[in-house]
TrEMBL record:
It comes from the Eukaryota. InterPro entries: C-type_lectin-like, C-type_lectin-like/link_sf, CTDL_fold. It comes from Caenorhabditis angaria. Residues 46-196 form the C-type lectin domain. Residues 28-44 have a biased composition (Low complexity). This is C-type lectin domain-containing protein. Residues 20-44 are annotated as: Disordered. CDD domains: CLECT (cd00037).
Length: 200
């Protein structure tokens, strides 16, 4: 603060006093104005090691876990071992398959993999091959609550799939080399699982 009626100039929160005439007696007190703090970065909605998938309305965090010889019936326990809230993940859109493929290469030393997804054959289509009722869009449902059927769109399936070979292929996997999905049986040994949980 400046006495004797002096004014001051403010530039970017720095106060510069206007110097008085040499014969005028003044007292300059130190400024008590707190410096402007830098903006803090928002916390990540996912834990370390998990990747955010932006979804409307509820985004998810996913992780690719590579664990050779994993069967579809092992998938739940494998996800829970990573986080108590994690379950095998559904796929919301075609674009998410590309994200899963990229994460797989990171987790698997640059290699692709056959990974279990969070899906089951619907009760209506158990024991059924492709029919007018059991189509690519209706044969499976996401077990983690992923909304919609875009992940089951025709372009996402391997050729002539799902075929329910032996009428026991009630689980779903993704081949990250081709970003295509396929139906498999419970005993099929695979490379790992895609796990997901709610974003914070």
């Amino acid at each position: 603060m400046l006495k004797s009626g002096l004014c001051c100039i403010r530039t970017q929160n720095v106060v510069y006093p206007v110097l008085p005439d040499e014969d005028e007696e003044t007292t300059v007190e130190p400024s008590t104005e707190a410096p402007t703090e830098a903006p803090t970065e928002a916390p990540s909605p996912c834990l370390d090691g998990w990747t955010l998938l932006i979804r409307d309305p509820n985004s998810r965090c996913i992780m690719v876990i590579i664990n050779p010889n994993t069967t579809p019936t092992d998938a739940d326990a494998l996800c829970t071992s990573a986080n108590a809230e994690a379950v095998p993940s559904g796929v919301y859109s075609t674009e998410e398959y590309s994200i899963i493929s990229a994460l797989t290469k990171v987790a698997n030393n640059g290699n692709d993999a056959l990974l279990i997804l969070g899906a089951m054959r619907t009760s209506l289509c158990e024991g059924e091959e492709i029919t007018a009722t059991c189509t690519q869009l209706t044969s499976f449902t996401w077990t983690d609550g992923t909304p919609g059927i875009a992940g089951f769109a025709a372009e996402n399936w391997a050729e002539n799939r799902p075929n329910n070979g032996g009428k026991i292929q009630d689980y779903l996997i993704v081949n990250t080399a081709t970003n295509t999905i396929d139906d498999v049986e419970a005993a099929r040994e695979l490379d790992g699982v895609v796990c997901g949980m709610p974003a914070m």
